[in-house]
């Protein structure tokens, strides 16, 4: 693979936080954002605002929650985390239109973009699976 092919593939497979916000603003019904991070709920208590929490460990049992008619955007912890990439591969193999959010929640928070916080009355996920 040459450099041009690499960058074309990278751009096809990922979306930056800024590009996601712009795209979502222009066409809000087209996107479905999923937090695929694993781990105890208390370490995942902050999520990107309006994201759907479906940890990778629960994916196979919750596929019915993921629409096939939308662009699926996945995120995990940071650039060092490959959970979103693993989930993207799985969903692509099943016919979903998928991109990974570059930098995960760490990049999102670094840019001070909107987040949601879990509370006892409003848990982000009842299915930790840990």
From TrEMBL:
Gene3D superfamilies reported in the protein's UniProt record: Rhodanese-like domain
Protein name: ArsR family transcriptional regulator
Spans traversing the lipid bilayer: none
SMART domains, alphabetized: RHOD
InterPro entries recorded: GlpE_sulfurtransferase, Rhodanese-like_dom, Rhodanese-like_dom_sf
Organism: Priestia filamentosa
PANTHER family (alphabetical): FAD-DEPENDENT OXIDOREDUCTASE (PTHR43031), OXIDOREDUCTASE (PTHR43031:SF16)
Keywords: Plasmid
């Amino acid at each position: 693979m040459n450099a041009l092919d690499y960058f074309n593939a990278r751009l096809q497979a990922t979306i930056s936080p800024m590009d996601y916000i712009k795209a979502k603003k222009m066409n809000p019904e087209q996107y479905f954002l999923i937090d695929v991070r694993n781990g105890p709920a208390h370490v995942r208590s902050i999520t990107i605002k309006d994201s759907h929490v479906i940890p990778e460990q629960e994916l196979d049992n919750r596929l019915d929650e993921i629409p096939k008619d939308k662009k699926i955007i996945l995120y995990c912890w940071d650039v060092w985390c490959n959970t979103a990439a693993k989930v993207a591969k799985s969903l692509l193999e099943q016919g979903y239109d998928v991109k990974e959010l570059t930098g995960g929640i760490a990049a999102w928070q670094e840019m001070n973009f909107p987040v949601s916080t879990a509370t006892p009355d409003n848990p982000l996920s009842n299915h930790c699976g840990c």
